[in-house]
Specification:
The structure holds two protein chains of two kinds.
Chain A lengths: L4 H22 L2 H22 L5 H24 L23 H8 L6 H11 L5 H8 L3 H17 L10 H23 L7 H20 L4 H14 L2 H4 L19 H17 L4 H14 L8 H14 L4 H15 L1 H9 L2 H4 L3 H14 L2 H14 L3 H12 L3
Helix pairs in contact in A: 1-2, 1-3, 2-3, 5-7, 6-7, 6-9, 8-9, 8-10, 9-10, 10-12, 10-13, 12-13, 13-14, 14-15, 15-16, 16-18, 18-19, 19-20
Chain B lengths: L1 E8 L3 H6 L3 H18 L2 E6 L7 E6 L2 E6 L8 E9 L3 H10 L8 E5 L9
Antiparallel strand pairs in B: 1-5, 1-6, 2-5, 3-4
Classes of the chains: A mainly alpha, B alpha+beta.
Chain lengths: 406, 120
């Protein structure tokens, strides 16, 4: 979409509402989704030139409905010419757009547990986020045809699995589906946050979209501590973005970041959210990760970090997400800060098997060996980790650390 | 994760594909390509021209020296590639294993580097 920002923002905000109206009226999520996408594209070209219509939602519903009936007519003509299926002409004047906001239902449907994480993200970005296939393809660095295929396959899977446009009524099933939605939004955020420079910048927009969608979710679930915790985690992490890479796109570790460059507004909002969530709701992994990010955000310098509190939070996190080796790895880092590098290295010994192939374990071991004064071993560990990573900025960083040790 | 599946050939590989079994082998190729397109895993792929058509370029004391043929004189040469994005290395390896030329010559599955990176 090359529409001006104001039109684009409006269209993205209206997208889930218009889609929800159509699906509730006609069923057939996949056909409706295509029709809404076409209506959004039409609006993106017409509105900037002709002005935003008085009832923008009704305009979109009307155009999308027309596309939908056109598509049905074409299909039935092709399929059963002799049967003369007559499709009722949609009344296009005085269209009612439901007051109900279907964002939550759409999120649950798009994050269908039978879909792979990349498919969940692609479909969510299109159906709930109102992004075009071209935009999503460029964010994921794949050809548009590839992304179009993934989206239509995702919709076909949902149809084949009988995915319904309704929130599960059973509390346990609903909780499980919400867990999948939160995870998809978390992955979407990380996809964007890890982008560093150059060709990857289109990916960075994914963080903004993930934050926007999580905000929408939180507005619908004001009492869900994990949804609030996830939004807090995203904001507290995103606040560090200006400091996490230098001018050349090289990674800057947390301890060496210029904290004055962190975004104060995002930090303030994140701290407020996590304080509220921790005070009320039952503890969950997103709240705990946000709480850890909050401790970092509250330290004016790296030296002032309250590592005792971070170690305690990682212990709690390990308890609610048992068997997660990345949590154990981060716990070891925190213990090393509190009790010295040898204490951290001792904890890494237990991790070797599960993370043996991971460059992250090698990178952490290298750091701790360096701090413990084992220069030769640290250097070898940095180089081994550099060979394992598939990230160019990480490789550059690890090779740089090794080079500094000679 | 994106992977390049590197397809190696030798002097005989392409003859298999133009010989009596060629039609069946090409049908297998078409079936895999259709499967990868349908699943949204296919990013791209091309076949390279015969190595007799390649020239190697190297700088000798700053002056480009151009020689006929590929760099290494080996029994097998790099003949083409598939670019895929898969859920796992195992899935990429499975595609390579089913590629019909695997019966004659090896393939190599290599993850692509990215510009993404996490704070270390």
């Amino acid at each position: 979409m090359s529409a001006p920002a104001a039109v684009e923002d409006l269209l993205r905000a209206l997208a889930p509402r218009v889609l929800g109206t159509l699906v509730r009226r006609h069923g057939q999520f996949d056909a409706c989704e295509d029709a809404v996408q076409e209506a959004l594209l039409a609006a993106a070209t017409q509105w900037p030139a002709e002005g935003i219509p008085d009832g923008p939602s009704a305009w979109l519903v009307t155009v999308a409905t027309r596309r939908l009936t056109d598509a049905w007519r074409a299909e039935s003509a092709r399929r059963e010419r002799e049967e003369r299926v007559v499709v009722a002409e949609e009344r296009v004047s005085g269209v009612a757009v439901a007051d109900e906001d279907d964002t939550l239902t759409l999120l649950v449907l798009c994050c269908h547990p039978e879909l792979s994480a990349p498919s969940q993200l692609a479909l969510t970005l299109r159906a709930v986020g109102g992004l075009t296939t071209a935009e999503i393809a460029s964010a994921f660095l794949v050809p548009e045809a590839t992304m179009a295929q993934r989206i239509s396959r995702a919709k076909a899977t949902i149809r084949a699995r009988g995915g319904r446009f309704a929130l599960p009524e059973d509390g346990a099933e609903r909780a499980e589906r919400m867990r999948v939605v939160l995870h998809a939004l978390y992955v979407m955020f990380n996809e964007g946050y890890t982008a560093t420079s150059g060709a990857e910048l289109a990916r960075a927009e994914l963080t903004g979209e993930a934050i926007r969608l999580t905000r929408l979710l939180c507005a619908h679930l004001p009492d869900d501590g994990e949804a609030q915790g996830l939004l807090a985690l995203m904001l507290l992490t995103d606040a560090r973005r200006p400091a996490r890479t230098d001018a050349d796109g090289a990674l800057v570790p947390l301890a060496e970041q210029d904290r004055s460059a962190w975004r104060a507004e995002e930090i303030a909002e994140g701290l407020g959210l996590i304080a509220g969530a921790l005070a009320g709701a039952p503890l969950g992994p997103y709240q705990l990760q946000a709480a850890i990010a909050a401790v970092h955000a509250e330290a004016a310098t790296a030296d002032q970090t309250d590592w005792r509190q971070i170690v305690a939070l990682y212990r709690l996190l390990a308890r609610v997400t048992p068997g997660n080796p990345m949590v154990s790895l981060n716990h070891a880092v925190a213990v090393a800060e509190l009790d010295g590098p040898r204490a951290g290295l001792a904890l890494l010994a237990d991790l070797d098997e599960r993370l043996a192939e991971s460059h992250r374990l090698g990178a952490v071991r290298a750091h701790l060996l360096e701090r413990a004064g084992d220069v030769a071993e640290a250097r070898a560990a940095y180089l081994a980790a550099a060979r394992r990573t598939t990230s160019l900025p990480e490789q550059r960083y690890l090779e740089g650390r090794a080079a500094a040790l000679t | 994760m994106k992977y390049m599946i590197m397809i190696y050939d030798n002097a005989q590989t392409r003859e298999h594909f133009s010989g009596p079994d060629g039609k069946e082998l090409m049908a297998e190729v078409d079936a895999i390509m259709a499967e990868l397109t349908e699943s949204g895993e296919l990013i791209g792929g091309e076949a390279l021209a015969d190595p007799s058509q390649s020239k190697a370029i190297r700088l000798v004391e700053g002056v480009p020296a151009i020689t006929d043929g590929p760099l290494a004189e080996a029994k097998e040469h790099f003949g083409g590639y598939l670019m895929v994005e898969c859920e796992s290395f195992d899935r990429a390896a499975e595609i390579a294993r089913r590629w019909p030329s695997a019966r004659f010559t090896p393939l190599e599955v290599r993850p692509l580097m990215t510009h993404d990176g996490a704070e270390m």
